[in-house]
Amino acid sequence: MKAINGKLLWNLVYIICLSFLLFLVIIHFNNRINNSDDFFFLTRLNELGFWKSIREWEFNQRPVSHFIFNLTFYFSPKVETLRWSLFIGNLSIIFLLIHSLKIVVAKLFSLIEIQLENRKQWAFATLIAMCAFFFCIERSEVWFWYICTVIYLVPFVLLNYGSVLLFDSRKQARFLAAVFFL
């Protein structure tokens, strides 16, 4: 009976995760560019070119974010095709976020010597991303406004990947857990 309940629970978790992912795909598909910043950066890219529009921001500490942002806009220089680039870009960042969380989850479980199936690792990662989404104060800025998605979520993704690489031994497991939950 316990095995049936456990399997039913995991099936429910998978359904919740897939529903959340479907929700994100639908919302991002219907997301429209309507922010002056996005239009401003697109205009600067068309006026100055790829590299000059990044270098223009001398005192900005986000050159990687602007590089990713310009890369997205470079492949859709027209506003008509920009919607598809933003859709693909946002979903790519969200996939990378969930993938980085999956790697952190797998590492944390391996550090405490619990073997977890690959699909359960993906489920935990998706649940963490879902919690981050629903507990986020400004969802529209962090998850749907492309420049903010690039500025806020990409560093978090890189932090997840880097933390797994840096703290690969059992001794730093507590530190990895602390960094992850901060």
Round the mean pLDDT to the nearest integer and report it: 79
Strand content: under 5%
pLDDT under 50 segments (min length 5)? none
Series of H and E elements = HHHHHHHHH
Shape: globular
- Our count of helices gives 9
State the secondary-structure class: mainly alpha
Which percent range fits the helix content?
A: over 70%
Number of extended strands = 0
Radius of gyration: 19 Å
- Biggest beta-sheet profile: none
Report, as a whole number of angstroms, the end-to-end distance: 38 Å
Please provide a written account of the structure.
- The protein has 182 residues and is mainly alpha-helical.
- The longest helix is centred in the middle third of the chain and has 33 residues, at 79-111.
- It contains 9 helices and no strands.
- α5 (79-111) crosses α6 and α5 (79-111) packs parallel to α8.
Q: Any chance you could write out the topology, listing elements then pairs?
A:
Blueprint: H1 2-29, H2 36-48, H3 50-55, H4 63-74, H5 79-111, H6 118-135, H7 139-144, H8 146-166, H9 173-181
Helix pairs in contact: 1-5, 1-6, 2-4, 4-8, 5-6, 5-8
